[in-house]
Amino acid sequence: MSEQEAAFERKPRGWRHGPAWIYLVMLVASAVALFVSFVLSAETLELARHPDQQLSCDVNAVLSCSTVAESWQSEIVKFGGLSYPNAFFGIAAESVFVTIAVIGLARVAVPRWFATCTWFGGLAALAYSYWLSSQSLFVINALCPWCLVLMFATTVQFMALSHATAVVQELPGRKNGKRRGLDTYYRLNYDLMIDVVWVLVLIVIILAKDGPALFR
């Protein structure tokens, strides 16, 4: 068996590693994140119109969209004396990821540079989401329910994007015709185990910090 044939045999196979499933997961996660971004934008406008009115997602002192929305972290981009809510940028970013997922489902071939930039864009979106969530948890000391949904949706989106980049786009590429360690990682479904642990760790951190107060 040649090296190329051996490399092909080590390639992840099965429905879970096919572009249809991977990009469908990404599409669902991105669509949820886009929907939440629209809701947060609407809530931000509602708070601007009625500053003294509670929002629908104000559950208690800890689960409070208003507290988070009134913090400086919710509007970090300022230009010309105006500030822009993060949710507005979320709409723009998630619209792009929805489009990318649709392109993947349509089996449209994209340049390697585009796939690489897409992955780094997903990483930036994840890092930004985690920074905002950490600010809510440890600085603002309040959690926005919609923001939590957005964080988990962005996490699943990045998981699917990484899966697609490694398995569908086959990046990073081969060296001397040999496959990469990523093939073993996905072929043996290690990624699924890591993803489950990843989500559980996020849940544990939230519950450890604010668990009792969430249900008051």
TrEMBL record:
Zinc in keyword set: no
Vitamin K epoxide reductase domain ranges (all copies): 19-165
Membrane topology note: Multi-pass membrane protein
InterPro entries reported in the protein's UniProt record: VKOR (IPR012932), VKOR_Actinobacteria (IPR041714), VKOR_sf (IPR038354)
Keyword annotations from UniProtKB, A to Z: Disulfide bond, Membrane, Oxidoreductase, Quinone, Redox-active center, Transmembrane, Transmembrane helix
Domain of life: Bacteria
Keyword Disulfide bond: yes
Pfam families: VKOR
Main location: membrane
Transmembrane segments: 20-40, 87-106, 113-132, 138-168, 188-208
CDD domains assigned: VKOR_5
UniProt subcellular location: Membrane
Family label: Belongs to the VKOR family.
Protein name: Vitamin K epoxide reductase family
Originating species: Bifidobacterium panos
